[in-house]
Please model this.
Amino acid sequence: MIAQFDVNTIWRRKFGEALRRRFPETLLIAPRAFGAKDSGQRDENITISLPPGWAGKTSAIGMPILRWRTEALATRRGGHIDTAIFTSFHYLPLAKSLQGKASIIYYCSDDYRGYAGWGGAASIDREAELCRIASRSIFVSTSLRDRAIAEYGLDPAACLVAPNASESRFSEQISRPAALAGLKGPVFGVVGGFNERIDYDFLARLAGSDEVGSLALIGPVLAGADMTGAIDRLRGNPKVHWFGAQPHDEIHAWMAGIDVAVIPYARSDFNHFCSPMRLWDHLAIGQPILATDACDQVARQPEVIVAPPGGDLDRAIRSAKIAAISGRRPHLESWDDRVAFVAPLIDTGN
Model:
């Protein structure tokens, strides 16, 4: 039986749900502190309540409870934990306690050094130790894998790359939302949260180009997103249209409703190492993608038109427009595809 710790973010949950579709006995564990909302079982994912600070200061108490409750659940279901998949270095104490009793897999779903409060030498050392006791380490980007191999001295054969992915709904034809249908084309669009990871100067240059009909910005503006006034300046541009946050179960229609997708990441270590779900969603839709060169995984995609700083942005825009006229080329890489790739390496005890 497989247990994945944890499914507390959408990308970990999507991977876990695909894992369970292939291996139905998989336990998807969602630890939460006592008193947190949504305790109990939800969407077949298993919430286990633990003392506050269970991943840090009280881990000496929280991790044994987590192990005991997960093993008890496996026993009630007629099995035991053959493979434990851990999604961050916080689970190192639990992984060490299961060493020799279960196959350990590390699923590195993000660059945790970029998380507030997660960085520092101690955290890096813990991640290195987790990688070393794992039989396999799965990274969502090539850059994350290569850094771990170089810094932690890992065996490259034990380090896999399985990027984030998309869903079949993104590759299906769907009507354009009425709010987008009325915009002057071609419509360039950004879908996702607007935070400090976004290059707002790039968006301003994009909106200022005569080659662009409209710029649609779809998603919430998050606290601390911009301290320079760039967002206010964008709001004052009549070609820029803000639509705010949209329901997750409708987001594929909004993404499909734009003519050219834009992934405008600013340069940072976090953006360099990430695996954006929006990339795979836009590839599934098949419209042209225009992006900065900040994310290594985005820039490596042959379908993406990259506009590096100082480059000829209008030329990149024209290339995207020509590609849009040529028609969409949907290319779906699903979460089930990712699991199919790693499945032969997972010990299910069967």
The chain has 14 helices and 13 strands.
